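Query structure, 207 tokens:
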């Protein structure tokens, strides 16, 4: 079913692994579908066959921070062209687990890649496209690590980074939220999962 208003919406979920993005993604999608919207759930890096192959490289292979950034945007450009823009054009609501804010936080804040380069690549990879609303799930390093450890899976190379790295990532996310409060809504990801849905509902109000 197409969006009843005929206008798609682009919603992104951001935050460190363990903050709750993936936990709440399916529930958000179910709520939107119950309201009559077509919903596309996708992720970055990934979402298309090419982007998923690039995801495997990025998560597994050590590489220079700038090269990593370029691969992120190669995957993003394909994802936007083949999946996100067509879905929005037909009136669907797109829920994406990570987008360019992740690159600004992880490669920019975490690894020191110049923000100017990231913005320039974004302008080429998805010109004129920005999320209508971003839900930033925020929690401390300790909460994130405890949850990832409890999940019992092998960490990828990003998850093996130092506390200092994740402190920089969190600070970059918080700076982004402060700079764009109308778009980026902070969600307290440290709370128990059953306390989060009201925050999400409030963050999506007005779309």
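Result returned for the query:
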């Amino acid at each position: 079913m197409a969006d009843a208003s005929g206008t798609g919406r682009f919603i992104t979920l951001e935050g460190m692994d363990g903050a709750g993005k993936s936990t709440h993604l399916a529930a958000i999608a179910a709520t939107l579908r119950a309201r009559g919207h077509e919903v596309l759930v996708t992720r970055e890096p990934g979402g298309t066959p090419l982007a998923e192959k690039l995801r495997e490289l990025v998560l597994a292979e050590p590489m220079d921070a700038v090269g990593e950034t370029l691969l992120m945007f190669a995957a993003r450009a394909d994802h936007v062209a083949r999946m996100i823009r067509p879905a929005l054009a037909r009136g669907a609501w797109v829920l994406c687990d990570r987008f360019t804010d992740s690159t600004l936080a992880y490669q920019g804040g975490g690894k020191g890649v110049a923000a100017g380069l990231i913005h320039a690549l974004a302008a080429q990879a998805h010109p004129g496209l920005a999320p209508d609303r971003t839900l930033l799930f925020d929690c401390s390093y300790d909460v994130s690590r405890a949850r990832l450890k409890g999940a019992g899976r092998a960490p990828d190379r990003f998850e093996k980074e130092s506390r200092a790295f994740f402190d920089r990532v969190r600070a970059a996310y918080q700076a982004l939220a402060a700079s764009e409060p109308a778009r980026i809504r902070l969600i307290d990801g440290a709370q128990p999962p059953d306390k989060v849905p009201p925050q999400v509902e409030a963050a999506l109000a007005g779309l």
